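Could you join me in thinking about how sequence relates to backbone shape in a protein? We need material for that, and I hope you will provide a protein of your own picking. Once you have written the record down, we can walk along the chain together:

…
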Amino acid sequence: MIPRYTPAAFSALWSPERRFQTWLDVELAACASMEVEGLVPAGTAQRIRALPLALDPARIDEIERTTRHDVIAFLTHVEELAGEPARWLHRGMTSSDVLDTSFAMLLRDAATMCLDRLEPLLAALRDQVEAHRRTPMIGRSHGIHAEPITFGLALAGHLAELTRARARLRAARDEVAVGSLSGAVGTYAHLSPAFEQRALAALGLGVETVATQVIPRDRHAAYFSAFAVVAGAIERFAVQVRHWQRSELMEAEEAFAVGQKGSSAMPHKRNPILSENLCGLARMMRAYAGAALENTALWHERDISHSSAERMLAPDATTTLGFMLERATTLVKGLVVYPANLQENLDLARGLWASEAVLLALVAAGTGRQEGYVMVQRNAMRAWKGDGDFRALLGEDADVSARLPAATLDACFDLAHALRHVDAVISRAVEASR
């Protein structure tokens, strides 16, 4: 049974209730910092915090229908609830100080939630890597048989990619976690950098270097691009599963539960639906990143062309990646691997995978590389056409046998020798992922 994803945590993160509470957190942190400089009466922030404030998104929306300004509507509602002390809120600040700083807090938390969901995916991949560390399979280049690898090594490549994706996501979280409380055009005309640093530190944020009126959107472009790269890493694995599950290969497949149906018309079908779903969602993640990149070019000190896009892309992108990470974990944990089919497909090559080893042996025996290439290729092409086994054909070739004794040729077809460094590569990926 495919687990049903419940995006409750992300829905709560991007809910009106959470958004307005975060705005209030920003305002109160700013107020408390202003008290240090004597800009507002001492104890104002604490007086407001002590009140049983119950922010009502519906009431804020009602006020906004008149004001046509969300932050003013919010502040009006806070004054309704808190009374006289609320008049000191927002002193010297502009709307973007509240919006961008609170947005940074939400994006930081969304990234943390995704990172939390990435760890089980890495753990599931590590388990599969270890289970198939020495399960041989044919490697493919351009979709064509190349040289042997192991299924564990194939998975280790995805493990390493997602490990890098984790680092990028962490870096993006750190980069976007900056706020600004610098006023209408970022000059602190009625505030001070020291006030800003205190307030933002209380919120767990860094300080934007130069904020103009908004936090520059290159940070957000990098953030959503990092999300898209994580999604792309998941997609690459999903594409592999789709290939492995092809009827002609059947090297591995998605778990298929009792009672699950693959087709309304064909009862025999077992389709890679999880993988296909993940590939489609990765396309959406790239679209979100594209919108974030478009948001970087704003007019002068600010405009709000980015705002409408971010109201859609931020909840959608973060929630979608959270879903993808959970679904990918389900996919990896349930992956069914068929070692016998992997071996059978490896054997289909009729030993052709050893062509490079034979070429290198000829070179080592004193044959020119291009001359040796011709010798190996002519036998490989015969084996490719089904005229015989590659090793046998090489032994029958007078030019090859004159240069390479049978024992040397046999050594070229030693699978253990071909895979002798795989363990070290896998261990490198596993250790880096922890």
Remarks:
- The chain has three domains: 1-91, 93-342, 352-412.
- The longest helix spans residues 95-131.
